[in-house]
Structures are given as C-alpha cells and as structure tokens.
Amino acid sequence: MTELAAAIRRLRETAGLSQPELGSLVGYTKQYISLAERPKNGVPSRNLIIALDKALDAGGTLPALHAAAKRGQREIRHKSFDSAIDDSRYDADKAFGRSACIRSDGPPVSHGEAHSISAHIPALRRALDSCESPEDGPVRSIEQLRPVVLSIIDKRLRSDYAELAREVPELLPELYRAIAGCPESQRASLARLLFQVYRAADAIAEKHGYRDLSARIIGLLCSAAAETGDELVQASSSYVRGEVFFSSGDLTTGRMMLEKAAERIQVGHSDSAAATYGALHMRAAVMAARAGHAALATGHIDEARQVAVRVNEGIHLGTAFGAASVRIHRMSLAVELGDFGAALRTATGWQPPINLPAERRSHFYIDLGRAYYATDQTERALDALHTAHCVAPEHVRAHPHVREMIEQMHIAGPGLHSTALSALQHAMS
Question: Does the residue 122 lie in any domain?
C-alpha cells in the first residue's frame, strides 16, 4: 500500500499536476486523489487506479502495484485475522460488557445464523428454477399470503437475512402455484406479492456476494413488476435494478436508467408516487457520487429532499423514504465524494429516528464510521461501527466497507483502540 501511494504521488508531481488537476483529468474529486496518496486509507479501487495509470502515462505500473497491495492485504489477513479474533474474546466481553450484541429492535442474534446462509442458497436456486413448473403443494388464499409477505418485507428492512434465507425458498414455490391457478382478477395482486418476495431473495444474494444469483433474481423481479401493470411497482423494480450497475461499475448507465424511471412518475398523484420518485433520485445521487460527479449528486439529492417534505417518513412499496432517509443519503454522498468534513457536519447533533428500518439506520452509522476513520478518529469510528452492529448485526457483518475498515485497523497495528477493535472483530466473527 505504501509503494502504491508513493508511486501515485511521485507520478503526479513529476507530471506537474495538483491533486485537483489530476482529479479533474480522471473524473474524480480531489479528495479521492488525496486518499489514494495516503497509505493508511488502504487500497484504492481498481477503476481509479486504471484511470490514474492512463492519465499519468505510467504504462501499467500502477495496476501492478495495486495487485501487489491487494495480495499483501490478503496475506496479512489470512495469517493473523482469525487468531486475533480468537484472542479477543475475553477483551470483547469486557469492552462491551456482554457476550452478545443486542439489537435495538429484537433479540440477540446468533453469529452462526449469518454463517448458515450459504447452506440455504442451493434451495433458493432450486426454488427460482421452479418458477414455470412448481411442484404440487398447498396454496394459501391471497388474504392469508398478504400478512406473510408483509412479514418478509419487515425482515428484509431489519436485515434478518438468516430468517429470510430459510423462509423465502419455501414461499416462492407457493406463490408460483398461486399465480398459476388463480383467477385473472387476482393475478396482478399476486404478482405484487411475488415482487416483494423477490426483493427479499435479492437482499440475501446481493448482501452476501452472490452477484450472479442477484442479477438473475432482479430479472425475475422486473418481470413480476411488469405483471402487476402498476407503473410505481415497475419504477421500484428500476430502483432495485440499480444494484446491477453498482456491481458492474457502469454507474453512468445506471444513473441514466434511474433518471428515466423517475421521469415517468406523476409525482402529484399520491404519496407512494412521490416517495418512489424521491427514492429513485436518492439512488441516482449515490451513483453520481460514487462516480465522482459532485454536482450531479447534489442535484439528485436536492430533488429528493424537495419531495421528502411532502411525504411522511415511512415504507412505500417496500422502500424507506422521507426526510430522515434523505439526510442519511446526503451524508453518504459526502463520504463517497471524500468530503468527510461535510459528512461529519451532517451528522452533528442528529441520529436516525428509531422508527426508521434497522438497515437504513445502520447505514448512517457505517458511513459515520467511514468519515471518522478517514479523518484519523479511530476511536470514534469504532464507536460508530459498534452502534451500527447493535442496530443491524447481520447487515454490518456482511458489509464490505466495515470489513475493509476492520482489516485496515488490524493491519495498522495495536494502539489505544486495540480493545475496542478486538471487541468488534469478535462481534463480526
């Protein structure tokens, strides 16, 4: 990491470029360049490194150093990360004062549950395979299925992935059977239920790195949305489809897709219409920020904010939206753009209301932790990550930014934060 950061700085200075000038050349903000030249911030993204190599005419030097830095990270992790977790168990209990983290909205979560999700993936794949020819079995009435699907939505919003992994593979074939045998008058309503269960299935796949499975589920989800004949459900499918573009890195195409979906919504028709429109702009803002386009990101989040003042904070077609959600996204944008001072100012004196879904609240504390860590406030970063874990443990354990921060803190070596870090490692195990 030190060699890569030094090489970027050396090549930039040799080219006679300032950090803002180099950022402008490669389409990133000055903060991204600054972070890439600071080894404590870990390994920059491969996309940024490729762009820098081309702009600085480095002839492939930077991608080679990037690959070596990633290998070095993996080697250090494999040699010592597991043993550090084992050694931390006494310190973890002492630091947190308990043997398990208690969620603010539920009972203790077994760490083994999150680790068992992979065991349910084959059943989920088989359930998806049966969409056109499900096996015979019981079918509840649509009135009985609605509360079941509402429970599935709630578990997704709470990040209860282990429970979803058990329940969704059994529910999908029943919905397939229900749609196959229903009167035409119920088909659209059942398709709406199927759409929400597909969202839960995608959450399982996407959060745990099954990208091929996530892409497949999103295709099925979009088909179910079309079956509803509801333009807002179809717009919501575009919101979910954004994940494909986050995974591929084609953020410009993804942002344009979201923009077009938002343009088709008549915002004044209902709260659901306004909330769906606002959610699409929130996600477009994140895509713009991740691509380094600050002005576009600001425009999208401002559009979402204008709509949020007209909508009560709540769950609209399975997506949380309102003024608090917009504020959390605004802080995320600042972090993505490397403007950590703005991120911390957004968070000062405020915390997410308890009625927000656990996953959304945990996002706030994860991004707060990222901002603190990037500004060398490691103790505060650990506090924020611990809070995030207490709110939504399964979400935090699966989150790549959290794992990356913990890895970087561990590689940096022991310090005043060693006990808190050991406790968080223990919680993540």
Answer: yes
Domain shared by 391 and 375, yes or no: yes
> Same structural domain for residues 100 and 196?
no
Phi, psi angle pair for 144, to nearest 5°: -80, -30
Residue with tokens 């992935």: 161
CA–chain centroid gap for 216, Å, is 18
Q: Are residues 37 and 93 in the same domain?
A: no
Does the residue 428 lie in any domain? yes
Same domain, 122 and 198: yes
List, in order, residues 6 or more apart from 380 with CB less than 8 Å away.
Answer: 372
Do residues 36 and 292 lie in contact, with contact meaning Cβ atoms separated by under 8 Å? no
DSSP class of 41:
G
Total-model pTM: 0.75
pLDDT (tens digit, 9 = 90+) per residue, 44-79? 777 788 889 888 988 888 888 888 887 776 555 444
CATH number of the domain where residue 48 is located: 1.10.260.40
**Structure tokens given for 334:** 């600042």
What is the distance between the alpha carbons of residues 155 and 352, in angstroms, rounded to a whole number? 19
Q: Closest Cα partner for 58 from 17, 110, 109?
A: 17
> Facing residues of 321 across strands?
314
- What would the DSSP string read from start to end of 309-320? TTS-SEEETTEE
Extract the residue ranges of the chain whose pLDDT is less than 50. Answer: 77-111, 113-114
Q: What is the CA radius of gyration of the chain?
A: 22
- 170 assigned to some structural domain: yes
pLDDT of residue 413: 64
AA identity, residue 92: A
Last residue of some domain: 87, 122, 149?
A: 87
Contact call for residues 333 and 289 (beta carbons, < 8 A): yes
Q: How many domains does the chain have?
A: 3
Residue 295 maps to a domain: no
Distance from chain centroid for Cα 280: 15
| Residue 413: other Cβ atoms inside 10 A | 7
Query: Cα(391)–Cα(28) distance, rounded to whole angstroms?
Result: 33
What confidence tens digit (pLDDT) does each residue in 132-186 have? 999 889 999 999 999 999 999 999 999 999 999 999 999 999 999 999 999 999 9
Residue range of the domain that includes 372: 89-105+354-429
Q: Which residues pair with 361 in a beta bridge?
A: none
